[in-house]
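Hi F.,

I've been meaning to write this up properly since the lab meeting, where we talked about keeping a consistent format for the predictions we share between groups. The idea is simple: the sequence comes first, exactly as it goes in, then the structure tokens exactly as they come out, then a line or two of notes. No screenshots and no reformatting. I'm using this chain as the first example so we have something concrete to point to.
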Amino acid sequence: MFMALTREIEDNKVPRIIYQSVVTAIIVAFVFLIAGRALLNLLGITVADFMIAGGILLFVISINEMITTKKILRQIDPDSLGAVPIGVPLITGPAVLTTSIILLDGYGFIVTAAAIFINVVIAGVVFFFSKYIHGLLGKAGAKTFSKIASLLLASIAVMIVRKGIMTFIL
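Output, unedited:
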């Protein structure tokens, strides 16, 4: 998806987009990590509700990626491309927000924040080397890898929904 979104962007502008996406993703994830539970409580949303909703949304995104053969991209503003849609929801989306709430309970703030930070930076590094990775995989390999990643994402989404339902029931 990153390659498709940045295909028409000049090569010298892509590092700035990557930086913007990583910073946006980290800020949104950390703000949610700090205030997410309070926001959910204010709205009367349980963690189970959020898990189910986030899982369903993630599932829809992954299925769309899996079955769509031709992407229709709108005219995207390169100045905000890093923030939306790459930073949010591509890097920090429903899975990260849902998982951060779950991990916060089990591992505490420091470990969860460190995990989010490291994972977002890894995503940024992968984006930075995406042209090389795409060149290494080739067009067919990149499409195959994309479909497998979408299937794994769908599986993660189902797991989040299942855990949300189990949390709700118990």
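Notes:
The mean pLDDT is 90.
The chain has one domain: 13-169.

If this format works for you, I'll send the rest the same way.

G.
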